[in-house]
Amino acid sequence: MFLQLKNTTIGYKTPLIKGVDTSLDLGEICLLIGNNGVGKTTLIKSILNQIPTLNGEIVLQNQPLKRLSQKKIAEQIAVVFSKSQVPANFTLTDLVALGKYIHYPYYFNLNNSDLQEVEKIIESLNLTQYKDFPLQKLSDGNLQKAFIGRALAQNSPMIILDEPTTHLDEKNKIIILKLLRNLAKNHNKLILFSSHDWRLAKEFSDNIWLVDDGKLEAGIAEEILLKHNELLNPEVFRFNENFVAPQIFAPQLEKEMLYSFLQKNFTKNLSLLKFEFKDHFWEIPDDKIQRKFNSFKEIAEFIANHD
C-alpha cells in the first residue's frame, strides 16, 4: 500500500478523528467527505506531516512519515489547497512550471521536455488562451485550475486536493474530474480529494473516507453510500414551520423544486392536495376536471384560489 494510517488519531491539542485504520494504493481515487469542522483539512495536513499525529502513525511507501523530510514528502505527494497564496508577478505558465522545481534547484532552467509537459498540462486544463496572463487577472475558477496544473507538473505518485472544484462551473468541474481519473487509472496515480459534493463519490470515486462524529469510515464508494442514506437523500431544509406540504409524486429533482417553491410562497396546510409530474406537466391526479399546469405560477394561482 502506498499510504497507510495505523490506529491514527489526528487533531491539534484535542482529537478530531480517532483510531483511523485504513489505506490507499496507487491507481485509486478516494473522496474525503464530511461536514465543516470535522477535521478533513487537519487530516490532509497530517498526511503531509504539517501537523503531528496525536497517536498511531502514518506510513508512506512503507516508511513512517515522521522519518521523511519535507522535500521527500513533496516529491511523493503534490497538494492543492482550496485557499493558496498567489505568487506575485507570476503568469499562469510560471505557476504551472513551478511544480517542476520540486525536483530541481531554484536556479535551474527547465529543459525542453519539461516545458513541453507544462504546455501540455495547460492545454489539458483548457487554459492555453490564458497562459501568459498574470495570476491576479485570472478568474477564481481559472486560478484554481492553474494551481491544479502546478500539482500535475510536480508529477508525484499521489495528489491531494482540498475542495478542488469549489470555484469551478460544471463544465470545468468535469474537465478536472476526467483529468484526475485519467491520471489515476492510466498513469497509476493515487488521488485523494475532499469535497462537500457526495455526487462525486458515485460518479467519480472508487473509495470514500467519511468523517463523522470523530471517526473515519472507509470503504468502496457505493457501499458507503448505501449504508448512509442521508448522503443520498438529504433532508429538505425547512424554514417555514407553518407550511405542510402536499403529496408530491415526481422524480427527486422535480419534487424538491416544487417543495421549495411552495414552502417559500405558502404557509397554509396543503396536505389534502396531490400533485403528479407526468409528461412534463404537473397534474392533480384525483381531480375530476383533470387539471394540468405548465408552470409553478399556474400552480400558485390554483392554490391561492383553492379553499
Automatic annotation (TrEMBL):
Gene Ontology MF annotations:
ATP binding; ATP hydrolysis activity
Q: Which residues belong to the signal peptide in this entry?
A: none
Instruction: Quote the PROSITE patterns the UniProt record gives.
Output: ABC_TRANSPORTER_2
Q: Which InterPro entries match?
A: AAA+_ATPase, ABC_transporter-like_ATP-bd, Metal_Ion_Import_ABC, P-loop_NTPase
Instruction: List UniProt keywords, sorted A-Z.
Output: ATP-binding, Nucleotide-binding, Transport
| SMART domains found in the cross-reference section | AAA
Which residue numbers delimit the ABC transporter domain? 1-238
Note the superkingdom of the native organism. Answer: Bacteria
Q: Which family does it belong to?
A: Belongs to the ABC transporter superfamily.
Protein's UniProt name: ABC transporter ATP-binding protein
